[in-house]
Amino acid sequence: MKFVVVFSLVFFAIGSEPAVTRSYLEDLKSRVDWEVVDYEDSPFRGWTIDELKSLLSPSDVDPFDIPIKAADVEVKDIDWSKESDCIHSVRSQGNCAASWAFSVAGMISDQCCMKKGKDYGWLSSQELVSCDMTNNGCGGGYVKNAIEYVIRKGLVTEECFPYFGEKLHCPTRCANGREWEDSHLCKCKNLISCKGHEEMYRCINDGPISTTLRVYQDFYYYKGGIYEWDRRSSSLGVQSVRCYGRSSQPRPHWLCINSWGTNWGEQGYFKIATGECGIETIEPAYCVPQD
């Protein structure tokens, strides 16, 4: 029986059959400590593995995680959603692998509000999808490249260039009629890398950051609690997210926001154990807006 379960997981991971069944979720619930979504409530019910992969950036990183040992230093819990009114709400990337754009646009929206004392609302993730030629629009991208775009240009607001979920031509005029070039805000000073547990903690003490994690099949069915990879689920690609805090209880974990809408996870939010899925090593970084 054990062989059959493992075989079926591998089968789903390489084929175009439905990625989730009732038996899959019941088996997953029996193995993990975090809360698994019920079959009827899964936002990805009926999706195939190929469709799940289409939401992610492709990845050529090592498919096996080597957890980074947390630094032996005293750390205090931090949660910017409680300390500041500048943490912007959950968004949905739709059927477009634009998590990298949402991660960075959300991070700079938060950082700009915190550092400048003025909330411009959500800055445009669509601008990154359409205008950042160093990334691949709805085909995936990198946090580092997107931050470097913000360093060069800044971003317009969503009122200027709302999200469409596809790679449109980069505009020359805002949707609200304003001049395109003059509408850019929150240009950054420089990219700050946050690789490793201690550095990521130091960065989050200055506000939300962008980072990227390796996504396994089980992550799609997260509903709550502190996520840890099931170790039987296959790697499908990578997803960039925004992290805004760290907590030590009941065990060390990061507080983060995904871009799969409010029907996934804890209304779009999630907790992930420190050292999991490359979240501290793949692309943790942020930038500080210019004065």
Descriptive report:
This protein has 291 residues and is of the alpha+beta class. It has a single domain (2-289), classed as Cathepsin B, Chain A, CATH 3.90.70.10. 25% of the residues lie in helices and 18% in strands. It has helices at residues 2-14, 22-29, 49-53, 80-83, 99-116, 125-131, 143-153, 197-204, and strands at residues 35-36, 78-79, 188-193, 209-216, 222-224, 226-227, 235-247, 253-257, 269-273, 285-289. Strands 2, 4, 6, 7, 8 and 9 form a 6-stranded mixed beta sheet that branches. A two-stranded antiparallel sheet has the order 1-5. The protein has a two-stranded antiparallel sheet with strand order 3-10. The radius of gyration is 19 Å and the shape is globular.
Short description:
This protein has 291 residues and is α+β, with helices and mostly antiparallel strands. Helices cover 25% and strands 18% of the residues.
Set down the secondary structure blueprint:
Elements lengths: L1 H13 L7 H8 L5 E2 L12 H5 L24 E2 H4 L15 H18 L8 H7 L11 H11 L34 E6 L3 H8 L4 E8 L5 E3 L1 E2 L7 E13 L5 E5 L11 E5 L11 E5 L2
Parallel strand pairs: 6-9
Antiparallel strand pairs: 1-5, 2-7, 3-10, 4-7, 7-8, 8-9
Helix pairs in contact: 5-6, 5-7
